[in-house]
Amino acid sequence: MVSAQCPQSRRAKEVRRYGLIYAGLTPFIVIAVFPVYWMAVTALKQESDLYRMDVIPFWFYLPPTLKHFKYLFEHTWYAAWIVNTMSVSALVAVLTLLTAIPAGYALARLRLPGAENLGIAIFMTYLVPPIILFLPLSRVVSELGLQDRWWALVLIYPTFTIPFCTWLLMGFFKTVPMEIEEAARVDGCGQLGALVRVVLPVSLPGMLTAVIFSFTLSMQDFLYALAFVSISDQKPVPVGVATELIRGDVFFWGSLMAGALLVGIPVAILYNFFLDRFITGITGAAVK
Amino acid sequence: MTATPGGGPPDTGARVAAVPIAGRVAGRAWWRAATARRLAFGYTLLAPAVLYVGLLVGAPFLFSLYLAVSDANVGDPVASFVGLENFRAAWESPTFHIAWQNSLIFTVVAFVLKGLLGTTLAFLLLQSFRGKKLVRGLVVIPFTLPIAISVLGWKWMYDSQFSLINWALRGVGLIGAYGTEGWPVWLGQPHLALFAVISVNVWRSFPFSAIVLLAGYTSIPPEVLDSAKVDGATFLQRFRHVVVPMILPILLVGLLFDTVFTLSDLSVVYLLTNGGPDNATQILPTLAYQIGIQAGALGRGAAISLFLFPLLLPAMILLLRNLRRREW
């Protein structure tokens, strides 16, 4: 009897432990996910279904519709905003790779005097908030004639992607074993040759991470796009949705949510997969 | 060893010595040339990034200092030096005081709430249970969704008439009917509006606090905790003398990062209330934007945004000290 009771009580304890954990986690999951769920439901509801307070609003009273998505593409600049966002992100990624790869490599590998301080200085610039820089940068943008064109964002976004990605790639290059580079040098590669032919190919995951972050960090910006681009067809998605679908006191809630989620969800998923890299990137400073 | 004829030994000795010396000299020259090449190569590789960041972060930062002491505005390109006039004018305006105070309240209250929620969540995620990856993926959604996008969802939930929150509260009888005193207008009543914008910031960042804490905790080698246990340290002792000191650096970086973000983020307040009602939710970033871009007073706007700097500086110095301790 004793021997039969023991495992049973242990199992009961285990069940209780699980119960407590899930009970503790449920509110967090609900808080985190509910707003997104609500946005999705709103995006798919018919207009008259949106403004009913007499029925339970969490689900569809009238059949769901894609009308709001259609409205976005037919009556707003949404398609152009997507193209703008993609173009900006792609060009920013290219600029970032072109500058951050060599810089990260030099800081990690070439034993430059002062490399440590220089690395820290570059990373610190990532922490200078846009709100301090946007006024002087608005001058720079207008001097260059880029006012109200998405090209302005291509110029400005690397100010935060380069510091972050340099830091990230520097950490990455440190993990590439020195020996393979030395082997390449012995085989007659020059310094640049060794970098291009040997180090870069094994660093593809790091470079991919840098591209992802150029993309997601560009998507997180709101201030620069708001301050520098005010012509409808030049805006990137977040600013376009927030400024063009709210006209005075009139809100197009359905299409607002549709437009927000259509780009928000892919970015969130992508970022989700690379979140740990992001955390190591910024806290990497504190971990050996 | 055979004996050598008279003149032999020094001669051979000289020859034997001469080769390595020559070799050493040549080697040193070669070494020096190689070093010079390596340095030149290194600085060439660094140059584009350093120039970019220097020209578009460093120079603008200095330029914002200059703007702040000038009367520059959008219409008039020739600015003259006005000393600390912009700072004085800002300091004397009542709106600025509200913004400054709100920025502090915002940061401190959000910090405490994020700390509490983040620690609880981190503690739960430390346990082993099935479906952990999925749960983690779900709870970090607020942080991974671009902020300007999720704020729109919140704006809809805070709607003055069709607020879902009010529907739920009304359902359980906590608030009055629409149109009466008892119906909260989240973004229209001063205290509620401040609470509403802070909530969104907390919602956005608590997963970040949790994940940073987790990263810190998992960076502690289990052997360290085990050996402390073997040595007879109690749970509290282990926590105080092992866990806290080891997590602290990571925690600090995470907190500083979040503080910088919270203090300088414009999008939540701009999209939800634009500083209203009647400046009740005005914070320094929104005020700087309104004055610098919308009213075109670049100098005054720059001065206001620079008031953030003393708030950010301690965070940055702490971070810098932390980074320097890193082992390379």
Folded structure, characterized:
The complex is a heterodimer of chains A (288) and B (328). With 288 residues, chain A is mainly alpha-helical. Chain A folds into 2 domains: 2-65, no CATH class; 76-283, MetI-like (MetI-like fold, Orthogonal Bundle), CATH 1.10.3720. Helix content of chain A is 77%, strand content 1%. Chain A has helices at 2-44, 47-50, 67-75, 78-109, 115-126, 130-143, 151-156, 158-175, 178-186, 191-202, 204-220, 223-228, 237-244, 253-283; strands spanning 246-247, 250-251. The model of chain A has no long low-confidence stretch (mean pLDDT 86). Chain B has helices at residues 8-68, 85-92, 94-126, 132-139, 141-144, 147-157, 164-171, 190-218, 222-230, 235-264, 267-272, 284-294, 298-306, 308-324. The longest helix of chain B has 61 residues, at 8-68. In chain B, 39% of the residues are buried. Mean pLDDT of chain B is 83; it is low at 1-18. Chains A and B meet through helix 1, helix 4, helix 5, helix 6 and helix 8 of A and helix 1, helix 3, helix 4, helix 5 and helix 6 of B.
